[in-house]
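*** Residues and shapes ***
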Amino acid sequence: MKLMFSIALFLLLPYCTRQTSDVIIESTPASSIGGVIQTELEKTVSLVCTLQSGTHDDKELVWLRNEAAVDLKDGNKENRSSVCIRPVIIEDEGATFTCHLKSNASNKASVTLNVTYHTDISGLEEVTVEEEESLVLQCHMRANPMVTSVTWKLNGSIVDLLTSSFIITSDGITSKLQINKVERSLHEGLYQCTATSPVYGERSKSFQLTVTEKTLKFPLMPMIAGLVVVGLTALLAIISRWRKIARCCK
């Protein structure tokens, strides 16, 4: 019986600790029981920290964003203090805002932002490459929640990884389609990268690939050096010849 009472007391302890704090945070939109605020990019989040009734010599409040102090204006520090996040950006994802008494940092309350956003892929990009050159196409698929799949198509069909020399890689943020040696007959056309999100559905970006004939390329620096040598040699020959003619005329 004593053991059961001890377990129940242990489970209730965090709840009681939160409730005995004299500092509370109210937010728009409202937070969940765990102090998580659901929001999206470009939205606005308003936080209001209030000091509840109690005996406090110092009533000044302090705001922290991920342990870094938030600059507050005079008149927005005592008893009641507000912070506005506008607009919400990607870097706000997972950010924790904490409000506490300046004189007692343990008297505090916190909320955490959960920022949902879709992948930033769209539009059409024109790409030109010469035959036998290498090529890399990229789709940035950073999102919250994470995308569930990424597909690559060429002219409306899923790319053939076995017969068309395609290599597809992904690090969870960027999906890359690579071709080590481009051939016009195999690789020219319209490519499409499609990312699927459980919240935002499908989003795509297209690449119009044009393959041109291979051109002969000459090393520029050796050519310049050669021309300089030839020019100096010719100049020295002219000077030498001129001196010989000058001697004959004397």
Q: What stands out?
A: The first helix runs from residue 2 to 20. The first strand starts at residue 23 and ends at 28. Helices lie at 2-20, 184-187, 220-249. The radius of gyration is 34 Å.
